[in-house]
Amino acid sequence: MTDIYVPAQRVKVLDEADVCVIGGSCTGVFAAVAAARLGAKVILVERQNRFGGVATLGLVGMWHSLFDSQEKEQIIAGLTLEMLERMEKFGAVSEFRLPAPQGLRFNPEILTLELDGLLLAEKNIRLLLNTSFSSTVQDEDGALQAVLVENKSGRQAIKARVFIDASGDGLVCKSAGLPMRSVPNPQPPTACARFSGWSFPEGFSLIECLEKYRKQLPELPGSYHWGMQIPGSSLFMLAGTRVLNCDCDDALQSSEAEISARRQIRALLQMLKMELPGQDICLETLPSALGIREGKHIKSIFPLTGEDLLAGKRFPDAIANGTYPVDIHNDQDDSIAFKRLNGDEVVYKGGKAIRQTRWLPEGESLPYYQIPLRCLIPQNSKNLLCAGRMLDADRDAFGAVRVMVNLNQCGQAAGVAAVQALTEGNVQTIDFQETRKMLAQAGAIIL
Predict the structure, then answer these.
(1) Superfamily of structural domain 12-183+372-441
(2) What HEC string does the chain produce?
(3) Which segments in the chain show pLDDT lower than 70?
(4) What is the pLDDT of residue 1?
């Protein structure tokens, strides 16, 4: 394969802002809103036609409980709570004002509408949908001057003083040449699907049915799955596919994974038609995007380790609290390992527990863990912050913090930190205590 040379191009500056956020997942939306509410002029860029990321495009309508693992204290609020209150008005969310150990269920379509409303209420935010990030423009000292984006209007530049990479894949960080690392066995991606008529005869086991048809239908997903009835809807969401041995940082592999996951859903539907011909189970919705669990990570000024996280270490720059367990999906088979905050450690394979032990002494538990702001600040970065699954965490720590309710908080914190960087001049010199103070004033719970 040979290279081609692209001629130099003069690019029109579309707009200038204080803060530019690349990526419109809930993480990116919350970053944009947090910055705008502090008076910053913000531009939010999203490559799809709606905001919300895996929560909307990926159909994953679940955030985890706002309370600690002992169900005694609320530890999460802020913009996450605000969105739950918005969805509550439409009967589109499960009970969230009390502990919810099985997680909070919501309707992704209502979340889509309410994210639009949240953003439209902020006059300081300019929105760009169906717009893809292309590359960065940097000065001789490495600071970002602009990002290049592309949409139906062509290639354009957006200038800003501070940038937030909420792309999930660390696209801005990669383009800026910041240090990143790959993991040898990244957690595999999943595609969800929504069904109508999702009901079964008494005694039916989906796991047993999958094993019965596995040789006949080799594209069937593994046995591990979970699902939920969608609040305010007759539809059921199932998360059961898993694409093994996939590097989602590779465009070809991620393209193949999208198709592979859909083929697994097709095989699942075919199996149900064969096994239960009288059941009116219908596929209603496929996701607009694969649910990617893990790609590359930034190298930050302070990596979060599983040792610190599971010890319940309190950080001077803590900006988020969480209770989701360490949850590591194997990329070679359908096994999954949990380290729960009650001290239990369990490995499942084929839908069955194959090993059970404890990582804490009997009778001990961890109420919650914290996420520090520093694991969102890339090394060598002057005016670029991160928010999302590319944060710097080792395998155990990432297995816990990667879920949406945790990354929502990281997004809100990144928006606040970006505004601080406007006056402090560099993301490396942000006053962490001031970040925590500003987050608390905005309704976040800072412990």
Answers:
(1) FAD/NAD(P)-binding domain (3.50.50.60)
(2) CCCCCCCCCCCEEEEEEEEEEECCEHHHHHHHHHHHHCCCCEEEECCCCCCEHHHCCCCCCEECCCECCCCCCECCCHHHHHHHHHHHCCCCECCCCCCCCCCEEECHHHHHHHHHHHHHCCCCEEEECCCEEEEEEECCCCCEEEEEEEECCEEEEEEEEEEEECCCCCHHHHHCCCCEECCCCCCCCECEEEEECCCCCCCCCHHHHHHHHCCCCCCCCCCCCEEEECCCCCCEEEECCCCCCCCCCCHHHHHHHHHHHHHHHHHHHHHHHHHCCCCCCEEEECCCCCECCCCCEECECCCECHHHHHCCCCCCCEEEEECCCEEEECCCCCCEEEECCCCEEEEEECCEEEEEEECCCCCCCCCCEEEEHHHHCECCCCCEEECCCCCCECHHHHHHHCCHHHHHHHHHHHHHHHHHHHHHCCHHHCCHHHHHHHHHHCCCCCC
(3) 1
(4) 66
pLDDT digits (tens, 9 = 90+) for 205-231: 999 999 999 999 999 999 989 999 999
User: Which CATH number describes the domain made up of 192-285?
Assistant: 3.30.70
How remote is the C-alpha of 371 from its chain's centroid?
15
Calpha distance 114→195 (Å, rounded): 23
* Tokens found for residue 73: 């204290």
Over residues 349-400, the pLDDT tens digits come to 988 999 999 999 999 999 999 999 999 999 999 999 999 999 999 999 999 9
